[in-house]
Amino acid sequence: MTESSPVVSRNPADPSDVVMRIPTPGAFAAADTVERARAAQPDWLTGGAAARSAALTAVAESIEALAEELSALAVREVGKPLTEARAEVARTAAIWRYYAQAPFESTGAVHETAQGQGLLLTRCRPHGVAGLITPWNFPFAILSWKAAPALAAGNSVVLKPAPEATACARRLAEILQRALPSGVFTMIPGGAAEGEAVVSTADVVSFTGSTEVGDAVVSAATARGIPVQAEMGGLNAAIVLPDADIGRAAAHIASAIAGYAGQKCTATSRVIAVGAALDPMREALTEALRALPVGDPADPATMCGPLISEHARDQVEGTSYGLPVLVGGPAAPGHGWYTSPTLVEKVPPDHRLLRKEVFGPIAALLPADDLSHAVRITNSSPYGLVTSVHTAGLDAVLHGLDHLGTGMIRVNAPSTGVDFHLPFGGTKASSHGPREQGRAALGFYTTSRTYTLAPDKTT
Questions:
Q1: Is 304 in the active site?
Q2: What is the pTM of this model?
Q3: What are residue 9's DSSP bridge partners?
């Protein structure tokens, strides 16, 4: 995308429906926006904890009041099934309420001096301008779990959202700007040029998106010497032990494969069945995926809606070519970019599905001789975000906790669905830098300073 190209977002369930068409400001205007945010930041910080807390609480209240409008917008712009869209909006409001308490937390500590006189203080202070680059798949929640802690800590924020979710980002920006002083939060529509301008001028950068773009963001920010975190996807496994409740595990895994058409970094893309679990899991998971409702995301019964774009749909369908397909294939419940939840088997170790994140409702069923073998298969991925383990026994859980090389492990639960008040992130190609969410996010958006207060005269 060039600086003069407009942002055009379309309804993935009906591509003829243009949700938003908006000019892009270009790199120079984006950099100027960062400077205006930098000018607004000191007053936002010195206004005090109570003012910041009240503003964040007001944001939460507005989101709750506008919940149905926001949910409908997410359905229309990014094809999120209505039930999931409503859950995301509720989660978004909860995120703002959670971080509304953060301004009152301690920002440092008092220490004894080695000499016995004076004071040593540590204190966390905001970086200045937080530059946020967010994806389209969670257009309200991811934006919020980055912006809320940044603002709570006293930073100003400049957001560059994914083009596909521009309308959602702009609507949430309107809500924030009503609650915050002028210049403290700004949304810049655009593409690569605007994103690069934010990374090259902000004081701290948080990114969520593809591995390729994330690597470029990390390199650019690191070269400038500024803090950067990047969440870049996953190739997540579900390990099923022979003692697991196969029906329950299949239901959990099916939802993690195909919920929101698999367009989550925590989606399951590898199902590793151990020993005698393979045959019953093949049957149960095939049936669970076949029964999973695919269709119009505005229908509350739908779990798997359209892919975000024609290219995304074609990529998912192309990934299964030449592989034994247990269930799935092209689907056309409407005029949008749909495909059916797909499960394949007999996948070669070097196949794309086992090496690259596909970001769609497709997974590979893989056999493992025993738990140790399943762990080795899981850890062989270039990514390391989340693993789910399905078992009735504690031994397997403890083994997994000790040996799985992923940032998050979920036992007898889908790989999707994480708690916003706990750290979020992975290992290897999944994540770079400190964790997001929870109290960990406050640490990322601040820097620690050490103060020495010596007496003018000794006594």
A1: no
A2: 0.95
A3: 20
Q: How far is CA 91 from CA 120, 308, 327, in A?
A: 40, 22, 33
Q: Order across the sheet with 108-111: list the strands.
A: 108-111, 119-126, 446-453
Q: Residue 380 class from Cβ within 10 Å (0-12 exposed, 13-18 middle, 19+ buried)?
A: middle
How do 427-428 and 383-384 pair as beta strands? antiparallel
231 given a catalytic annotation: yes
Of residues 164, 231, 317, 345, which has the active-site annotation?
231
Using an 8 Å Cβ cutoff, are 239 and 372 in contact?
no
Q: Is 169 helix (H, G, I), strand (E, B) or coil?
A: helix
Q: Note the pLDDT of residue 399.
A: 77
Q: Region 444-449: what's the mean pLDDT?
A: 96
Sequence-distant (≥ 6) Cβ neighbours of residue 288 within 8 angstroms: 250, 251, 253, 254
Query: By three-state DSSP, how is residue 314 classified?
Result: helix
Q: Would you say residue 334 has pLDDT above 80? A: no
Q: What is the mean pLDDT of residues 95-121?
A: 93
Tell me the domains of the chain and their CATH numbers.
7-232+430-452 (3.40.605.10), 236-411 (3.40.309.10)
Q: Which residues does 436 contact at the CB level (< 8 Å), separation at least 6?
A: 145, 146, 206, 229, 231, 423, 424, 425, 444
pLDDT single digits (tens) 386-421: 999 999 998 878 877 789 999 999 999 999 998 999
The pLDDT of residue 2 is above 50: no
CB 386 within 8 A of CB 409: yes
Residues with Cβ within 8 Å of 354's Cβ and at least 6 positions away in sequence, in order, are 235, 270, 347, 348, 364, 380, 381
- Are 180 and 45 in contact by the 8 Å Cβ rule? The answer is no
**In the structure encoding, which two tokens stand for residue 222, read together?**
């690191």
Q: Which of 265, 317, 345, 436 is catalytic?
A: 265
